[in-house]
Amino acid sequence: MIEVLDVRKDFGDFTALDDINIRIKKGTIHGIIGENGAGKTTLLQILAGIYDTKEGKVLVEGEEVYDNNKVKHKIGYVGDRNQYFKDYKIREIVEFYSGIYENFSKTDFQIYNKIFRLNLDKKIKQLSKGMQMRLSLMLNLSIRPEILILDEPTSGLDAIVKKDLLDILIDQVHERELTIVISSHHISELEKICDEITILNKGKIKYQSNIDEIKENVKKLQVVFEGDVEKEIHQLENIIDIEKIGSVYYLVTDNYGEVLIADLKEIGAQLIENIGITLEEVFVYTSKIKEGSGIDE
């Protein structure tokens, strides 16, 4: 298990993360979502032991990560930008990794390279951003980590390679109980593979839940009322977004249930239809609330 306990991280006068608490079970995939500057990369680097915290701590199976080589050897980290020795050939980087990580598997690397297709005789400086991402993914998968931390891992990858990568990640979770923490702007990809998600906004957690709970509790409703109910709708609790098109209201709620249905009928709802919602819409709507969209938090 990974435990992020009361973590705060400052850079000078700037607070990048504040009061972050997350528990990630072994053998699950946890998604980190947020706008640029929300603190996603900082959080992932703290999880990987690159940064220390100002307050709080990060534990892996009860042991602190920072300045702990024993724990760090269990972690693979793929950044959104991956810089290696530019004049090294890929095969030289493979040898370098095999000398550092005792569990590094050259066989695994060769298997992954049948999918990612890199020329081992190319130098790092000859690789595009997408190729460097492929290399970093293969290297970190080949160390056979217990935890894999991924920051925008599909950046620069084409559609076919993206699908192959997601399939590999899911297989590794099932076969080895690999724990994955992944950040991506491609929220639809996270929706397909994540067990739980955390939404960050300006360094704070604004929403945290498993995917099943999101689909159970966060709903987008198409509602037709009898008469003018504009004022009454805005007084309803647990409505996080309101849009009106013609005579139809589209309401987003984060606490769907019998109480809300009863409240809608009480103010004149003639038709209430659940039209579903995507994880990307959840992110957009919850971000709007916290920015002060006119609906109280």
Automatic annotation (TrEMBL):
<dbReference type="GO" id="GO:0005524">
    <property type="term" value="F:ATP binding"/>
</dbReference>
<dbReference type="InterPro" id="IPR003593">
    <property type="entry name" value="AAA+_ATPase"/>
</dbReference>
<dbReference type="GO" id="GO:0016887">
    <property type="term" value="F:ATP hydrolysis activity"/>
</dbReference>
<dbReference type="InterPro" id="IPR003439">
    <property type="entry name" value="ABC_transporter-like_ATP-bd"/>
</dbReference>
<keyword id="KW-0813">Transport</keyword>
<protein>
    <submittedName>
        <fullName>ABC transporter ATP-binding protein</fullName>
    </submittedName>
</protein>
<feature type="domain" description="ABC transporter">
    <location>
        <begin position="2"/>
        <end position="227"/>
    </location>
</feature>
<dbReference type="InterPro" id="IPR050763">
    <property type="entry name" value="ABC_transporter_ATP-binding"/>
</dbReference>
<keyword id="KW-0547">Nucleotide-binding</keyword>
<comment type="similarity">
    <text>Belongs to the ABC transporter superfamily.</text>
</comment>
<dbReference type="InterPro" id="IPR027417">
    <property type="entry name" value="P-loop_NTPase"/>
</dbReference>
<keyword id="KW-0067">ATP-binding</keyword>
<dbReference type="Pfam" id="PF00005">
    <property type="entry name" value="ABC_tran"/>
</dbReference>
